[in-house]
Design brief:
single chain; alpha+beta; Butyryl-Coa Dehydrogenase, subunit A, domain 1; Butyryl-CoA Dehydrogenase, subunit A, domain 2; 7-stranded mixed β-sheet; two-stranded antiparallel sheet; 13 strands; about 15% strand
């Protein structure tokens, strides 16, 4: 169950796929250089492998426990988390005015992939803390920021988001938790929240909850939801911790995977909270938190897929079974063509999804830090467009690759001792939480495509066509070796253009029925184009890794990029095949 961090892959994408020079040109990142990036990636690799990875299996086998209204984390988690805080990893991209390092988010994506691969269940805690910090930074009062942000950004205090209720899952407009003014600027929060990841634990000294609730006489539905900050322990004027607030975990979910992550049922009984943002605008404030969380859930998908790949690769190199063509003696199964195919599918798929996640983060960095307003606005539109792709494609690839990882192990993958089963179980949550992948597809089609008439998507397609054109700038041999990739990218871009026009002109039901197919088509094309961009830039800069990357892109183009046009029929026919079958016959023909 060893884990070897993919430092070279992450570094290559940073330097040849994302626009790192444009990020480094932003005033906020002028001190970022290649030596710093290398040091951070190498440090994260060592920390992930030596400190976090050894706790992964124990967390899966020894679940957190609820005792006397407190959650006790899995063995080794508290010590590993404290080491994580002491090393300063959580504040990597945090604002410097609150103790963070102020580094680009795209670098944080690379670092966090390694952390999540090492222990996805534990990695959820800092992920949610970072997202909660961003919501507080964007919407809370100066007093709340001064009280909570510094200790959250350094990880001394953790964060949690309390959205879901038994009757209100994806439809938050149905939530019933109440917030009653106390008359002193605080509010009394009452109600029950479920599926609260790291809602309680003993790793951090305090846990800062962001809670959605309704004020008295608030409008019905999602327009009547407000956001509140409720700490587990009150903070005294001198910064010390006071008495405990009136909310507690009353249960822990028994889950398919991520066993080391305590998923709590939280009961609020006139707990004290402070309003974050305007009244009845809680969903808008919460989306500041959720948008970042969605990107990092995509990163989690890549991360757990990478962990599964590492395990499969190690097993394939060690397991001797049957004779390999051309070999006289029995040999490791990595020599069998179908095993090699599975490993290549894992490696190429993960690289494509990784590229989308990193490009999303890079767009976010430029959106907040570029000097020119037009550049910032364009980057913000790009970040918004890519976020549902990063979340859905990254998490779907994670499940798909973890499943292949089990297959590579054969029968040993179906038993627990190899760890392959844990990767598969852990991966399955990522397409569900932080907005299901179906919701990501609806978001892409409804909010990101149709709302602006396809303007942001057309800009992306134009950029991808430019990548295709750049291949002609290479020498003849290099361009020839990219031949099949270029052909498949051209076909994919034509399919993406056609699909975009179909979605823009479809009625709402047809568009929604086609949304998942459209997201899949776009993701295959975008990932393939970004990888080709990486090869082109790497060859131009004479990076010795570019030749190997070129071979990987060849496989990606025939296994992933080539399938993009196959989604067109689903998009063309829309809701027809979906609703054409009689609902009464769904149980049996």
């Amino acid at each position: 169950m060893t884990y070897n961090t993919p430092v070279n892959a992450i570094d290559y994408l940073l330097h040849h796929v994302v626009d790192l020079d444009e990020i480094k040109a932003c005033p906020a990142y002028v001190d970022v250089n290649d030596d710093l990036i290398s040091d951070i990636l190498q440090g994260a690799a060592v920390f992930s492998k030596e400190v976090l990875a050894p706790t992964n299996w124990s967390g899966d086998q020894n679940h957190p426990e609820l005792k006397g209204g407190n959650v006790i984390a899995s063995p080794g988690f508290k010590q590993a988390y404290r080491s994580f805080v002491e090393a300063g990893w959580l504040g990597l991209a945090g604002p410097t005015e609150y103790g963070g390092m102020g580094l680009p988010q795209v670098l944080s994506v690379g670092v966090n992939e390694m952390l999540y691969s090492a222990n996805m269940a534990l990695g959820l805690c800092p992920m949610l803390t970072s997202s909660a910090s961003n919501a507080i930074l964007a919407h809370a009062s100066d007093e709340l920021k001064a009280t909570y942000l510094e200790k959250m950004i350094n990880g001394e205090w953790s964060g949690a988001m309390d959205l879901t209720e038994p009757q209100a899952g994806s439809d938050l407009g149905e939530l019933r938790a109440k917030a009653v003014p106390n008359g002193d600027g605080t509010y009394a929060l009452s109600g029950q929240k479920i599926y609260i990841t790291w809602g309680d634990h003993d790793c951090a000294d305090n846990i800062i909850h962001l809670v959605l609730a309704r004020l008295p006489d608030a409008p019905a539905g999602s327009r009547g939801i407000s956001l509140f900050l409720a700490p587990k322990y009150f903070v005294e004027p001198d910064g010390s911790l006071g008495k405990r607030n009136n909310f507690r975990p009353i249960g822990l979910e028994d889950k398919l995977g991520i066993h080391g992550s305590p998923t709590c049922v939280m009961e609020f009984d006139n707990a004290t909270g402070w309003l974050v943002g305007p009244e009845n605008k809680g969903l808008a404030c919460m989306f500041t938190m959720m948008n970042e969380a969605r990107l990092f859930v995509g990163v989690q998908g890549v991360a757990i897929g990478e962990r599964a790949y590492q395990a499969a690769l190690s097993y394939a190199n060690d397991r001797v079974q049957g004779k390999v063509a051309g070999e006289a003696e029995k040999a490791p199964i990595i020599g069998h063509p179908d095993v090699r195919r599975m490993l290549m599918e894992m490696k190429a798929g993960l690289m494509g999804a990784r590229a989308i996640c990193m490009a999303t983060a890079a767009a976010g960095d430029i959106a907040v830090s570029a000097e020119d307003e037009e550049t910032r606005n364009s980057a913000h539109a790009r970040e918004a467009l890519l976020t549902p792709l990063a979340k859905a494609y990254g998490s779907d690839i994670g499940v798909e690759m973890a499943s292949i990882g089990v297959q590579v192990h054969g029968g040993m993958g179906f038993v627990e001792e190899t760890g392959a089963a844990q990767h598969y179980r852990d991966s399955r949550i990522a397409p569900i939480y932080e907005g299901t992948n179906g919701i990501q597809a609806i978001d892409l089609v409804g909010r990101k495509l149709r709302r602006d008439g396809g303007e942001a998507m057309q800009a992306l397609i134009a950029e991808l066509r430019d990548i295709l054109a750049q291949v002609t700038e290479l020498d003849d041999q290099a361009a020839l070796e990219l031949g099949s990739a270029v052909d498949n990218l051209g076909a994919g871009l034509e399919a993406m253009t056609t699909a975009t026009n179909l979605i823009l002109t479809a009625d709402e039901t047809d568009a929604l029925a086609s949304a998942t197919a459209y997201l899949a088509l776009c993701s295959d094309v975008v990932s393939g184009a970004f990888l080709i961009k990486g090869v082109v830039n790497g060859l131009k800069k004479q990076d010795p890794r570019a030749k190997s990357m070129q071979k990987l892109v060849w496989f990606h183009s025939v296994a992933f990029l080539s399938r993009a046009p196959s989604y067109l029929d689903q998009i063309k026919y829309g809701a027809g095949p979906v609703f054409g079958f009689d609902k009464e016959l769904l149980a049996d023909l």
